[in-house]
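Reviewer 2 asked us to include a model.

Predict the structure of this chain.
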Amino acid sequence: MGEVNEEPVVHRVVTLVRPGLLPMELGIVHRLFGTAMDYDARPLYSVVTCAPEPGELATDADFTVKVPHGPEALENADTVLVPAAEEDYGPQERGRLAEPVRRALERIPAGARVASICTGSFVLAAAGLLAGRRATTHWKSCDEFQALYPEVAVDPDVLYTDDRGVLTSAGVAAGIDLCLHMIRSDHGADVANTVARRTVVAPHREGGQAQYIEQPVPEPGGSSTAAARDYALGHLGDSLALEDLARATSMSVRTLSRRFLCETGTTPMRWLTAQRLQLARQLLERTDEPVDRIAARAGFGTGTAMRQHFRDVLGVSPRTYRNTFRGTE
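Predicted model (structure tokens):
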């Protein structure tokens, strides 16, 4: 008998939009999920746009968008995304949801992944989906968000959060980071990196939105920490201390730490750990090297140390990660 080529299981992504939607946020979802392919160039996702009441919707631009699908499209969704709308930028009230939006959200099946882009997080919070979870939103709205929803652990510094199947992202462009994170979680770094290259965006941005918050202009003559990052990337397998990075930039440890946080939104050692994790993930996906060898190459020293970082950050062991994305036993 000839070989039977099984069709890939296509993950259904449904975007719920509201009047006053931001076209860029809608486009992000279609572009990124819509270009994710398996190794046989078959689509991994189907993407559908729906509205609480289908028809022609106003946007925040000088054109409208026609949405033919109503809330029934949510009933068989695997992932639901809720982008921002103009109404989110006015003063908010706790639990404020238009009744059509509330009824639409009730159609989402149990177990579906739910995510928001920018201030779409207010919709998730108003629906009670973020209670007891970590979340973020645009940095200008974080204080208001936290005041309205004290039961939510608001993190104003990150680009996105992922807490037990409910995800949120910061400002508009952070929707790109969020979608790439979901693709990477579903299908591995190679697929996400290919989508990023086709879209000409960074596959993973370091730091958080703290680096985009309006801050005073730095003092003239302040030097960048880029040299420290370049040095670290060239020596990931070595044992690196803050003093080594500071020496690469001719700065004191204190100055390096302060400027690194301002420029990247994270600390030097957290950034370094993230780079080592990324290298380890690539090696697990692309090579057959044992975990201990990968741990040494990525700078974790021992397999035990690398396993702990994988558990803390990714929630899985290196072996489980490799099995997931390479299909090995």
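The chain has 13 helices and ten strands. Residues 215-222 have pLDDT under 50 and may be disordered. We have added this to the supplementary material.
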